[in-house]
Structure formats: structure tokens, C-alpha cells
Target: alcohol dehydrogenase
Amino acid sequence: MESNHAIAVYFWEAKGQNPLFPRIYGHEAGGIVESVGEGVTDLKAGNHVLPVFTGECKDCAHCKSEESNMCDLLRINTDRGVMLSDGKSRFSIKGKPIYHFVGTSTFSEYTVVHVGCLAKINPLAPLDKVCVLSCGISTGLGATLNVAKPKKGSTVAVFGLGAVGLAAAEGARISGASRIIGVDLNSSRFEEAKKFGVTEFVNPKDHKKPVQEVIAELTNGGVDRSVECTGNVEGMISAFECVHDGWGVAVLVGVPHKEAVFKTHPVNFLNERTLKGTFFGNYKPRTDIPSVVEKYMNNELELEKFITHKVPFSEINKAFDYMLKGEGLRCIIHMEE
Model:
């Protein structure tokens, strides 16, 4: 099991949701199937898989829709700490249950996952690289490739240059965008962002006027596409208002504070701007993620540049320190032999 940990801090600190302890965190990983339960026919022992925090049952209206990836049965549920089939945990210590986390619980040498939350991938793909595709990187990449869909030669603004935003920029680079404008309050992120195709940088703190006006001036009326990856509602409004009238599309990826309200003048819509939201980059985990792994295998998608640190599982706290200090993008935690 190779694992990653960004969302875990939020839940470990029990911000904004019901705390459930004890619990095994971790939701971004790659592993090998050790055994399968009764009735499982899609997977067998030895298959290489990416566990995903949302699933694909293949039977509900969402799964049958070509447009949606929000499975009725298996979409993310942060409060549920048990398996769906019997409402019980598969982990315990001294006879007492340890709860699951978003159906994955990957900070563990072994875990138990619903078959609908496992993407079967190419066994030749290195798990210590492609594990980053099981959450944030696919989210940002898909927000651009599947939802914003910039045409070759277009201009794209990306708000927030963390790992998800850089994955959105990578999607714009793969799409052949002519200009990729990175927007972030931390100017030190720009140098790193160049590796992901970002061509220009705007720090809203450097300007007296709203950043959407700055971008409109830079691009002769606005960008063709924008992708918002901060979760800050002001950033969301700016991302929408900075797209060009007539054809501009803005895509929201970041998760806002629960009290946040999005305000914009309706004329921004009447002037033919489009606002879209996305969940996990609009990828259906079982159907689509194997082909994203193939993009990496075919050298169309670069993953190594997202991986800045590696630590053994016994040093998992170091990985949290890197993240909390904002050092690096993704730290791979590997199980020790």
C-alpha cells in the first residue's frame, strides 16, 4: 500500500464534521488485492488497484448517466465509519471496533474496501507513482480535461497552485493552452508552477483592483477557461468573473466553508459566461481512472513532479509536518517490508 494524506488533517482535527474515533485515516493510495469477499467477480487476488474515496456501483442513475460520476450508493460519506453490507467495521483492537474513513482507510498495511471503490489498473504501473491519481491529481486534471475542456491555443487561469491546482494546470498544458495564468497569494509557488505549464503569475496582493479585472486586462477581455482550486469563496467569484463573455467557462473545484455564499451579478450569466462545478474531476473511478494511469504510462502525463517527498510508514508524522508547513506537494508513505 502506498499512501497520501492531505484531507486526513481536516478530519483528524475534527473540523466541521462529527468526530469519529478511533479511526484509520488515509484515502489516496495504491495497492494489491490480497483476497476478495463473497460475490466479488470484478477483482481477484493479485490485481493492482487504486482505492478511491468515492465509488461507482455501475447500477444507479448516476452511474448509468454519461454525464455524472456521483454514485448514489458509494459517493463520499465522511460520517460513515463502517462497511455498507452489514454496518460493521472490519478493523478492531482488543475486541473494540476501529472505524473506516471514506471507504478507504489507507494508513494501514491491509484495508478492506468495497469493490465499487477500487479501480483496477495496469499491473506494470508503479504504485508509488500512480497512487497520487486516486484523489487530488485526478480531481485537478479532470476539472480541466473533462469539465473546462479548453481548446488548443486557449487561455486558462488557475486559482490556487497547490497540488490540485497544479494538476489543473497540467491538464491545460496537455490540452495545448497557449497561456496558463497561475493565481496564488504565495509568490514563491510560481517557480515550481512553471514545471506544470504555468506561463504567467498573478498575486492578488500585488494589485489594488480585483484580480478578475487584472486578468481581464491581461487577456483582452478575460480568459477562455478558469479553474478554481482554493475553496475560498472570493477566489470562486474572481474565477467566474475573469472569464470572457460569450464563451468563457469557469469550473469550481475547491470546497468552501459551509457558511460561504457565492454572489455575482446575474448579468455575468446573461453575457454568456458559464459556471460549472466538479467532483473528483468528473471521473468515474472504475471506468475512467485506468485510462488516466495509461496516460502516465504513455508519457502524456507527468506524475514524478508532483512527488516531492517519500517516507516509510514508521515516519508518517514527518509527512504530516511537510504538509502542514507547506513544504512540497505530495509525500509518498510506503509500507515497510
